[in-house]
Amino acid sequence: MTPLPSGVLEHIVDSHCHPTDAPSISAASMQQLQITVCAMSTHSKDQSLVRELAQTYPSKIIPCFGHHPWFSHFITTNAGVAKHEHYHRLFQPTEELYPAFEDLLPHLPEPVLLDDILVDLRSNFASCSSPPMLGEVGIDAIFKVPYDYHATPRRISPFMIPLEHQLTVLEAQIDIAVEFGASVSFHSVKCPQATLELFDRLKRKHEENWNNIRFDIHSCSMSPETLVQLQRKHANVWMSVSTTINGRSRNLRPLIAACAVDKLLIESDYDAIEQSTPKCLEILDIVAEVKGWHIETDWDDGDENGAVHRLEANWKVFSATQTRTTE
Ligand SMILES: [Zn+2]
Prior knowledge:
globular, Metallo-hydrolase/TatD-type, hydrolase activity, acting on ester bonds, 327 residues, TatD DNase family Scn1, alpha/beta, TIM Barrel, Metal_Hydrolase, TatD-like
Protein backbone atom coordinates (compact mmCIF):
# COMPACT_ATOMS: atom_id res chain seq x y z
CA MET A 1 0.00 0.00 0.00
CA THR A 2 1.29 3.44 -0.93
CA PRO A 3 1.95 5.64 2.14
CA LEU A 4 0.74 9.15 1.41
CA PRO A 5 1.70 12.53 2.90
CA SER A 6 -0.93 14.57 4.70
CA GLY A 7 -1.03 17.04 1.78
CA VAL A 8 -2.52 14.24 -0.34
CA LEU A 9 -4.54 12.55 2.45
CA GLU A 10 -6.50 15.72 3.13
CA HIS A 11 -8.03 15.42 -0.35
CA ILE A 12 -9.35 11.90 0.26
CA VAL A 13 -12.99 11.35 1.19
CA ASP A 14 -14.25 8.10 2.72
CA SER A 15 -17.72 8.20 1.21
CA HIS A 16 -19.23 5.62 3.56
CA CYS A 17 -18.33 4.51 7.09
CA HIS A 18 -19.92 3.97 10.51
CA PRO A 19 -17.56 5.56 13.10
CA THR A 20 -20.25 5.93 15.80
CA ASP A 21 -20.65 2.13 15.80
CA ALA A 22 -17.16 1.54 17.21
CA PRO A 23 -15.86 2.27 20.71
CA SER A 24 -12.60 3.65 19.27
CA ILE A 25 -14.22 6.95 18.33
CA SER A 26 -12.49 9.46 20.61
CA ALA A 27 -10.82 12.86 20.63
CA ALA A 28 -7.46 11.13 20.07
CA SER A 29 -8.61 9.02 17.11
CA MET A 30 -10.37 12.00 15.56
CA GLN A 31 -7.26 14.12 16.07
CA GLN A 32 -5.23 11.63 14.04
CA LEU A 33 -7.72 11.50 11.20
CA GLN A 34 -6.35 13.26 8.13
CA ILE A 35 -9.04 12.43 5.61
CA THR A 36 -12.71 13.50 5.46
CA VAL A 37 -15.30 10.83 6.27
CA CYS A 38 -19.02 10.45 5.65
CA ALA A 39 -20.42 9.13 8.92
CA MET A 40 -23.56 7.05 8.42
CA SER A 41 -26.45 6.68 10.77
CA THR A 42 -28.72 3.66 10.59
CA HIS A 43 -31.56 3.74 13.16
CA SER A 44 -33.26 5.95 15.75
CA LYS A 45 -30.46 5.71 18.31
CA ASP A 46 -27.49 6.82 16.23
CA GLN A 47 -28.86 9.91 14.42
CA SER A 48 -27.91 12.15 17.36
CA LEU A 49 -24.48 10.49 17.72
CA VAL A 50 -23.69 11.35 14.10
CA ARG A 51 -25.06 14.88 14.50
CA GLU A 52 -22.90 15.50 17.59
CA LEU A 53 -19.81 14.03 15.94
CA ALA A 54 -20.25 16.35 12.96
CA GLN A 55 -20.83 19.34 15.23
CA THR A 56 -17.60 18.57 17.11
CA TYR A 57 -15.49 17.91 13.98
CA PRO A 58 -17.16 19.88 11.19
CA SER A 59 -14.09 19.86 8.95
CA LYS A 60 -13.61 16.09 9.09
CA ILE A 61 -17.11 14.65 9.35
CA ILE A 62 -19.92 14.83 6.82
CA PRO A 63 -23.05 13.81 8.72
CA CYS A 64 -25.35 11.32 7.06
CA PHE A 65 -28.82 10.86 8.50
CA GLY A 66 -31.18 8.04 7.63
CA HIS A 67 -32.65 4.66 8.47
CA HIS A 68 -31.00 1.53 7.12
CA PRO A 69 -33.17 -1.16 5.49
CA TRP A 70 -31.92 -3.64 8.15
CA PHE A 71 -33.73 -1.57 10.78
CA SER A 72 -36.75 -0.59 8.71
CA HIS A 73 -38.96 -3.12 10.54
CA PHE A 74 -38.68 -0.84 13.60
CA ILE A 75 -40.76 1.67 11.64
CA THR A 76 -44.53 1.61 11.17
CA THR A 77 -46.91 3.57 8.99
CA ASN A 78 -49.86 2.86 11.31
CA ALA A 79 -50.31 5.33 14.16
CA GLY A 80 -51.23 3.62 17.42
CA VAL A 81 -50.53 0.07 16.25
CA ALA A 82 -49.58 -2.33 19.04
CA LYS A 83 -46.09 -3.82 18.94
CA HIS A 84 -47.24 -7.41 18.46
CA GLU A 85 -49.64 -6.46 15.69
CA HIS A 86 -47.05 -4.38 13.84
CA TYR A 87 -44.44 -7.13 13.69
CA HIS A 88 -47.07 -9.80 13.04
CA ARG A 89 -48.36 -7.90 10.00
CA LEU A 90 -44.83 -7.40 8.74
CA PHE A 91 -43.47 -10.95 9.19
CA GLN A 92 -46.74 -12.88 8.76
CA PRO A 93 -45.44 -15.95 10.64
CA THR A 94 -46.89 -19.28 9.58
CA GLU A 95 -48.01 -21.67 12.30
CA GLU A 96 -44.72 -23.48 11.97
CA LEU A 97 -42.73 -20.26 12.45
CA TYR A 98 -44.88 -18.92 15.25
CA PRO A 99 -42.52 -20.09 18.03
CA ALA A 100 -39.66 -18.28 16.30
CA PHE A 101 -41.83 -15.16 16.06
CA GLU A 102 -42.63 -15.31 19.79
CA ASP A 103 -38.94 -15.79 20.47
CA LEU A 104 -37.99 -12.76 18.39
CA LEU A 105 -40.64 -10.35 19.64
CA PRO A 106 -39.10 -9.52 23.06
CA HIS A 107 -35.87 -8.51 21.27
CA LEU A 108 -37.64 -5.97 19.09
CA PRO A 109 -38.33 -2.37 20.13
CA GLU A 110 -41.69 -0.64 20.16
CA PRO A 111 -42.31 0.46 16.57
CA VAL A 112 -41.75 4.12 15.75
CA LEU A 113 -44.11 5.99 13.47
CA LEU A 114 -42.69 6.81 10.03
CA ASP A 115 -44.05 10.37 10.30
CA ASP A 116 -42.05 10.86 13.51
CA ILE A 117 -38.91 9.48 11.84
CA LEU A 118 -39.39 11.99 9.03
CA VAL A 119 -39.85 14.94 11.41
CA ASP A 120 -36.61 13.96 13.13
CA LEU A 121 -34.80 13.49 9.81
CA ARG A 122 -35.94 16.89 8.57
CA SER A 123 -34.81 18.60 11.76
CA ASN A 124 -31.39 16.90 11.57
CA PHE A 125 -31.04 18.04 7.96
CA ALA A 126 -32.02 21.59 8.91
CA SER A 127 -29.62 21.64 11.90
CA CYS A 128 -26.48 21.26 9.81
CA SER A 129 -24.41 24.20 8.67
CA SER A 130 -22.64 22.16 6.00
CA PRO A 131 -24.81 20.02 3.71
CA PRO A 132 -25.59 16.61 5.23
CA MET A 133 -26.31 13.46 3.24
CA LEU A 134 -29.08 10.91 3.44
CA GLY A 135 -27.63 7.59 4.55
CA GLU A 136 -27.53 4.81 5.04
CA VAL A 137 -30.75 3.95 3.26
CA GLY A 138 -31.71 1.41 0.64
CA ILE A 139 -33.12 -2.03 -0.03
CA ASP A 140 -31.89 -5.54 0.75
CA ALA A 141 -33.39 -8.77 -0.56
CA ILE A 142 -31.42 -11.26 1.54
CA PHE A 143 -31.32 -9.78 5.04
CA LYS A 144 -32.89 -11.88 7.78
CA VAL A 145 -33.71 -10.20 11.08
CA PRO A 146 -31.31 -11.28 13.87
CA TYR A 147 -32.63 -11.99 17.36
CA ASP A 148 -30.07 -9.63 18.83
CA TYR A 149 -28.21 -7.44 16.34
CA HIS A 150 -25.33 -6.78 18.77
CA ALA A 151 -24.80 -10.36 19.93
CA THR A 152 -21.80 -12.36 18.71
CA PRO A 153 -22.36 -14.78 17.16
CA ARG A 154 -25.56 -13.29 15.78
CA ARG A 155 -28.49 -15.72 15.92
CA ILE A 156 -30.61 -15.19 12.82
CA SER A 157 -34.41 -15.48 12.75
CA PRO A 158 -36.22 -16.85 9.69
CA PHE A 159 -37.96 -13.50 9.11
CA MET A 160 -37.30 -11.06 6.32
CA ILE A 161 -38.52 -7.49 6.01
CA PRO A 162 -40.88 -7.31 3.02
CA LEU A 163 -39.35 -5.30 0.18
CA GLU A 164 -42.54 -3.29 -0.10
CA HIS A 165 -42.11 -2.08 3.50
CA GLN A 166 -38.43 -1.27 2.91
CA LEU A 167 -39.45 0.75 -0.15
CA THR A 168 -42.09 2.72 1.77
CA VAL A 169 -39.52 3.72 4.39
CA LEU A 170 -36.89 4.43 1.74
CA GLU A 171 -39.01 6.52 -0.60
CA ALA A 172 -40.29 8.73 2.22
CA GLN A 173 -36.66 9.44 3.18
CA ILE A 174 -35.66 10.12 -0.42
CA ASP A 175 -38.46 12.71 -0.65
CA ILE A 176 -36.67 14.63 2.10
CA ALA A 177 -33.31 14.30 0.30
CA VAL A 178 -35.00 15.79 -2.77
CA GLU A 179 -36.42 18.59 -0.65
CA PHE A 180 -32.92 19.45 0.66
CA GLY A 181 -31.02 18.61 -2.54
CA ALA A 182 -28.96 16.17 -0.48
CA SER A 183 -26.85 13.33 -1.82
CA VAL A 184 -27.70 9.77 -0.84
CA SER A 185 -25.56 6.83 0.31
CA PHE A 186 -27.50 3.89 -1.04
CA HIS A 187 -27.46 0.24 0.03
CA SER A 188 -28.65 -2.18 -2.65
CA VAL A 189 -28.11 -5.87 -1.99
CA LYS A 190 -29.30 -8.68 -4.26
CA CYS A 191 -32.14 -6.68 -5.77
CA PRO A 192 -30.91 -5.25 -9.08
CA GLN A 193 -34.34 -5.31 -10.74
CA ALA A 194 -36.09 -3.62 -7.81
CA THR A 195 -33.33 -0.98 -7.78
CA LEU A 196 -33.66 -0.27 -11.50
CA GLU A 197 -37.45 -0.03 -11.19
CA LEU A 198 -37.15 2.23 -8.13
CA PHE A 199 -34.86 4.69 -9.92
CA ASP A 200 -37.16 4.81 -12.97
CA ARG A 201 -40.16 5.42 -10.71
CA LEU A 202 -38.38 8.12 -8.70
CA LYS A 203 -37.33 9.91 -11.87
CA ARG A 204 -40.96 10.06 -13.05
CA LYS A 205 -42.12 11.14 -9.60
CA HIS A 206 -39.58 13.91 -9.00
CA GLU A 207 -39.36 15.15 -12.60
CA GLU A 208 -36.97 18.11 -12.84
CA ASN A 209 -35.87 17.75 -9.20
CA TRP A 210 -34.64 14.22 -9.87
CA ASN A 211 -31.26 15.37 -11.16
CA ASN A 212 -30.83 17.61 -8.12
CA ILE A 213 -29.91 14.67 -5.95
CA ARG A 214 -27.11 12.20 -6.41
CA PHE A 215 -26.98 8.57 -5.39
CA ASP A 216 -23.90 6.64 -4.42
CA ILE A 217 -24.48 2.89 -4.71
CA HIS A 218 -22.19 2.07 -1.81
CA SER A 219 -20.07 -1.10 -1.49
CA CYS A 220 -21.65 -1.85 -4.83
CA SER A 221 -22.34 -5.55 -5.30
CA MET A 222 -24.26 -5.24 -8.56
CA SER A 223 -23.07 -6.92 -11.71
CA PRO A 224 -21.06 -4.60 -13.98
CA GLU A 225 -23.92 -4.90 -16.53
CA THR A 226 -26.53 -3.66 -14.04
CA LEU A 227 -24.30 -0.76 -12.96
CA VAL A 228 -23.72 0.30 -16.57
CA GLN A 229 -27.45 0.10 -17.26
CA LEU A 230 -28.23 2.21 -14.19
CA GLN A 231 -25.57 4.84 -14.94
CA ARG A 232 -26.62 5.11 -18.61
CA LYS A 233 -30.24 5.74 -17.64
CA HIS A 234 -29.57 7.95 -14.63
CA ALA A 235 -26.83 10.57 -14.75
CA ASN A 236 -27.15 11.01 -10.97
CA VAL A 237 -25.83 7.57 -10.04
CA TRP A 238 -22.32 7.24 -8.63
CA MET A 239 -20.73 4.07 -7.27
CA SER A 240 -18.29 3.42 -4.44
CA VAL A 241 -16.41 0.28 -3.51
CA SER A 242 -14.63 -0.94 -0.40
CA THR A 243 -12.21 -3.76 0.30
CA THR A 244 -14.27 -4.46 3.42
CA ILE A 245 -17.30 -5.66 1.43
CA ASN A 246 -16.08 -5.99 -2.16
CA GLY A 247 -12.51 -7.17 -1.43
CA ARG A 248 -13.05 -10.84 -2.17
CA SER A 249 -15.62 -10.40 -4.93
CA ARG A 250 -14.57 -11.49 -8.39
CA ASN A 251 -16.81 -8.69 -9.63
CA LEU A 252 -14.72 -5.95 -7.98
CA ARG A 253 -12.28 -5.22 -10.80
CA PRO A 254 -14.83 -5.63 -13.63
CA LEU A 255 -17.15 -3.31 -11.68
CA ILE A 256 -14.46 -0.62 -11.30
CA ALA A 257 -13.59 -1.01 -14.98
CA ALA A 258 -17.27 -0.65 -15.98
CA CYS A 259 -18.00 2.38 -13.78
CA ALA A 260 -18.08 5.78 -15.48
CA VAL A 261 -14.70 7.48 -14.70
CA ASP A 262 -16.40 10.57 -13.28
CA LYS A 263 -18.94 8.59 -11.17
CA LEU A 264 -16.52 6.57 -9.06
CA LEU A 265 -15.88 7.07 -5.33
CA ILE A 266 -14.05 5.12 -2.62
CA GLU A 267 -15.08 4.12 0.88
CA SER A 268 -13.99 2.06 3.87
CA ASP A 269 -17.48 0.87 4.98
CA TYR A 270 -15.73 0.36 8.32
CA ASP A 271 -16.85 1.17 11.83
CA ALA A 272 -13.52 1.86 13.63
CA ILE A 273 -12.42 5.34 12.59
CA GLU A 274 -8.70 4.48 12.68
CA GLN A 275 -9.34 1.95 9.91
CA SER A 276 -10.97 4.51 7.66
CA THR A 277 -7.70 5.77 6.15
CA PRO A 278 -5.91 2.41 5.62
CA LYS A 279 -9.09 0.86 4.14
CA CYS A 280 -9.51 3.82 1.77
CA LEU A 281 -5.87 3.52 0.70
CA GLU A 282 -6.35 -0.20 -0.01
CA ILE A 283 -9.26 0.40 -2.34
CA LEU A 284 -7.53 3.48 -3.82
CA ASP A 285 -4.66 1.20 -4.91
CA ILE A 286 -7.07 -1.19 -6.63
CA VAL A 287 -9.08 1.59 -8.29
CA ALA A 288 -5.90 3.29 -9.54
CA GLU A 289 -4.55 0.02 -10.91
CA VAL A 290 -7.78 -0.94 -12.71
CA LYS A 291 -8.34 2.54 -14.16
CA GLY A 292 -4.65 2.98 -15.01
CA TRP A 293 -4.32 6.11 -12.87
CA HIS A 294 -1.17 7.03 -10.94
CA ILE A 295 -1.40 7.89 -7.24
CA GLU A 296 -0.01 11.30 -6.32
CA THR A 297 2.77 11.27 -3.73
CA ASP A 298 2.95 15.07 -3.58
CA TRP A 299 -0.25 17.10 -4.01
CA ASP A 300 1.48 20.11 -5.55
CA ASP A 301 3.30 18.03 -8.13
CA GLY A 302 0.21 15.98 -8.83
CA ASP A 303 -1.70 16.65 -12.01
CA GLU A 304 -5.43 16.39 -12.51
CA ASN A 305 -5.08 12.89 -13.93
CA GLY A 306 -3.86 11.49 -10.61
CA ALA A 307 -6.21 9.11 -8.81
CA VAL A 308 -6.72 11.34 -5.75
CA HIS A 309 -7.34 14.43 -7.91
CA ARG A 310 -9.88 12.54 -10.00
CA LEU A 311 -11.70 11.03 -7.02
CA GLU A 312 -11.80 14.40 -5.29
CA ALA A 313 -13.30 16.00 -8.41
CA ASN A 314 -15.89 13.19 -8.55
CA TRP A 315 -16.71 13.75 -4.89
CA LYS A 316 -17.15 17.50 -5.36
CA VAL A 317 -19.74 17.03 -8.09
CA PHE A 318 -21.45 14.23 -6.16
CA SER A 319 -21.74 16.22 -2.92
CA ALA A 320 -22.66 19.65 -4.30
CA THR A 321 -26.05 20.73 -2.96
CA GLN A 322 -28.57 21.69 -5.59
CA THR A 323 -31.45 24.09 -5.32
CA ARG A 324 -34.88 22.60 -5.66
CA THR A 325 -37.19 23.72 -8.42
CA THR A 326 -40.59 24.34 -6.89
CA GLU A 327 -43.61 23.94 -9.05
ZN1 LIG B 1 -22.75 0.74 5.64
